[in-house]
From TrEMBL:
Amidohydrolase-related domain mapped to chain residues: 55-447
NCBIfam families: D-hydantoinase, PRK13404.1
Family: Belongs to the metallo-dependent hydrolases superfamily. Hydantoinase/dihydropyrimidinase family.
Protein name: Dihydropyrimidinase
Amino acid sequence: MPAHDTLDLVIRNADVVTASDRFQCDIGVRDGRIAVLGHDLPRGAREVDATGLLALPGGVDGHCHLDQPMPDGLRMADDFFTGTRAAVCGGTTTVIPFAAQEKGGSLQAAVDDYHRRAEGRAVADYGFHLIVADPTPKVLREELPALIRRGYTSFKVYMTYDDLKLSDREMLSVLEVAKENGALVMVHAENADCISWLTDKLIGEGRIAPRFHGLARPAAVEREATHRAITFAELVDVPILIVHVSGQEAIEQIRWAQGRGLRILAETCPQYLYLTADDMGLSGDHGYEGAKCVCSPPPRDFENQAAVWRALAGGVFSVFSSDHAPFNYDDPAGKQPGGERPSFDHIPNGVPGIETRLPLLFDGIARGKLTLHQFVALTSYRPARLYGLYPRKGTIAVGADADIVLWDPARKVRIANAELHHAVDYTPYEGIEVTGWPVHCFSRGEMLVEGGRYLEPLAGRGRFLAAGVPVMD
Ligand code: DUC
Ligand code: ZN
Ligand code: ZN
């Protein structure tokens, strides 16, 4: 090879696993991309021996919240720096958080503001979803189509939360724009009126502890909204993605729709595999610690966890995301707003999980819950396709970005917040032992994590990724 063709990096003896294939080879990287997959490659400027490790494409976290503007004095603990630092330490090299429109505000303003928050801070590459909270005629006819053309091809809509929720009619209008412009709508499916009725009842009875959050949002509330969203998608004749599916009842609706040939895609998250309602507080518990696990939809029970694992293996879900929503526990801008311990309906929703997402799912491989190929498909390949980033992201192939994570499939790690790299003061997964850990992480050929140690790359090295057309297979 002529000198100017020297490889920047050669990863030797890699056991490469993609969504569909597994093969042994050396990986040659030049200018941030995979230049060659082969044997006995010439010496690179940097050499890494991957003997005994698995080489997987970097994870794509298609649902996380970083530095999202919050109302009422609340603040997310992670910005683009700490959030993406944690991501890469957990084997995720691409994140897609949300630029959220405020009611009465413009989408473009939200996007501009969000770019300012990411620039100079992100360590990993990033795209943006939009949150459409106020679909005025101008937003629907002008802003949204223009933004889709410029690489924001997915947007989330909410069926609950007062400051975000859309009416049924507004949902239909947004879906129509997605259909006309080839975009993907992500749906938060919970019935707002049922939640507020149940909440008022519980509060009226003095049942205010964090664990009552689960009773205000039972599975039926999610099931009904899931079915309604499916109906909207059918009427408009457009695919949708139901996000953060928590258990059996919503899964049944999705399976029913998929069985009828509707293009209903689904996402689930670690909290629905590892947490239960008891983590928000046991019956009779009036403590506040359960606030750490308050998220929506809420964690259910062990049977629902088992149903989610089965549905992951059975192909119901396309993607597995963190829904990382980083609020400190001991913080007046976090889970104890204004320094108070309020009734459950005033606890900011969400759990952190951007770093633990992949190890928690990977652990299921050793336990026979899913295959390595399914793991790669759910965490990297499918989200890359869905969010218009494939084949640059989501696989190990010549021409792809050299986002490569070397996993030690046998390494046992007990999760401890003290070892994590987010800025949140707790993890809901404290003490859980997993088998398999991402030990080395490369983004565009640059080693960011070595042997589990974060190498402190330049903040701001992460690049914005304009999304292409969603591939909804
Ligand atoms: N629910 C959401 O819809 N988003 C962030 C976190 C959560 O619990
Ligand atoms: Zn949501
Ligand atoms: Zn979310």
